[in-house]
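Why this split exists: single-chain examples teach little about how molecules sit against one another. For that reason, every record in the complexes split bundles all components of an assembly together and asks for one structure covering all of them. Below is a record exactly as it appears in the raw files.
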Amino acid sequence: MSTISPARPWRTPVWGGILTAALIAELVWFSAINRNFFGGGAGMLSQIESFIPTGILAMGSALVILTGNIDLSVGAMAINTSVVVGAALVAHVNIYLAILLAIAVTTVIGLINGLIVTLLGIDSLLVTLATQFIASSLAVSLAGDSPPSGFPDAFITLGEGTLGPIPVIVVIFVVVSVCVALLFGRTRFGRRVALVGYNPSAAKYTGIPVTRTVIGVFTLSGVIAGIAGVVLAAYFNAGRSDSGLSLLLPAITCVVLGGVDIFGGRGRIGEVFVAVLLLGYLTQGMLNAGFSSLIASMVTGLLLIVALVIKIAVERPAGATLLGALRHRVATRVGTLVRKR
Amino acid sequence: MMSVAPALSPRLGRTGGGTVRALFARRDVQLIPIMVVIAVVSGIANPAFLSSRVVSSLLITAMVTTLMALGQTFVMLTKGIDLSVAPILGLSAVIVGFQAQDHGLPLGLGLLLGAGIGIVLGAGNALLVSILRVPPIIATLGTFTVYGGLQFLVTNGSQVNTVPSEYTRFGVASFTVVPGVPWLLIAGVIATVVAGYVLRYTVFGRSLYAVGDDAEAAFRGGIPTTRVTFVAYVVCGFFAGLAGVIYLMRTGAADALTGTQTNENLNSIAAALIGGAALTGGRGNALGALLGSIFLSLTLSAMGIAAHIPDEWQPAGIGVLILLAVVADPRARQGTRVRSRLRKKKDGTR
């Protein structure tokens, strides 16, 4: 195994360090300007609750992006689940059955995504752009005019209960993150994901089942989106029917801010985890400070762009030095125009 | 100049040879019979569908999309994508709308202002993508939220609802050249012709195809790839800005969620794809964008008016159309590394 795995010696997670420093600075800052923010530790944990569904989605998206694909349908799938689980609960279906049913729906959507991407060979961006809108149409038409709400207490505990001092919702997020991190870092499947993203043809010639890996990743993304949707429904005590865009954008932002290469192959789940906390507290801190959610997401977008520009400036793609890149830039600039003389 | 063109991109689907087969291999030509069939079937299902009023209003709706799709085509030719066109449209509609509503900005100046806003915002995208080399999808996803936030800041909670009649009369379905042909269609056709001329007969246009087809080869061939990509995003912003004013003319209203709410991003991408553009770059043309938009508008209207499918299924309809458009185009199925690899495997086994 070690002979065919890509050389991955221990690298100091520089980006993770920067993110952690930023997170600590942010927490100190918010605690300083808002005395209620810290709330004795556990209070601080509950601050991030509303961001947790997005964080869970980010974990699924991270896997997909690591293979060099992208899944734009995660937000809509989560929305879909929240409506399905809601409708099932309102119809007095057993809680576990309802949850399983809802997650099964997104699993199937994820599987379909994977099948279309691999077997028909269509760009995942287009496939998931399409399924995103199909999934949200499904959700909207299922929800009708009034999304399902008013769930049994046992279900709401999932969203609002605490386990000791820690909110259940945070526990779920941590469990999902740890599972994804172990899957990516410690299993054969995870290694395949990285290889497929790093260099698909090399992966293929090493005998890695690329098609199966990609399908698996999209299906997993569906499962995780389903979990996020259940959490969403439990947290808001209602199904939500919209385009899911408000979940998708921050989820992708988390992944990219977490240092995952958008072209696949490189990234650390741990850093994505820190990025989720960073963005979650930033969003919540801004909302607490009285900013509108649109402004908060605007800052998120700015952060995404700035982080990427910094990252691209610091970490050149393999082989290209900063100097080489600059020279390329200058050469492009002064390159002769193909102009009619 | 002209002699360079075919060499730069031999598989553009130019009808130079003039064979019937070559003509029907063109996406824009394929679309016309399908549109006729949809129109006829819908007309039989519900005769009101072919009334001058319905046709006129669906064409007006298509014109907003046409402008967006024209811009999107420029960007997609370079192998890029612009997900920020919706808030660019929104910002332009809101700013021009407020100026028109509160200060009586004349239509001509309104169009100029809208285009200017689009150019500035497009230049923001261009800076990120071509100079700072941020992947287009991420860069424009970021600017999507930034421009959306700006739009919210500009509206400051209020909305545009009474613009001068000078604007709205063009958006009314009954204001037509001949019944069924609204004045806005003329504007859309002019924009298409201009964009088509630029794409087909100018050095810049040919460079777009070259860059999208093979950026490395284009660079080595002396094409200023950075500059070409930069201008492509600016052009896309320009069209989205103009589309914002057209949107304002059509609806007479605009608010903080204009553009984003009606999925203008999806519409523009779908229309460009249906018209024959491909994410893999180097393919697509202006006529395709126009026909793709009309096709989209026609299909959605047919879904609603003739087939009585509820409105909430419209996004799903667009989604299915995107998939069909790509599936129906074998050449579009190449691009990312995974897929080209799979393709090789399939070819090898056959």
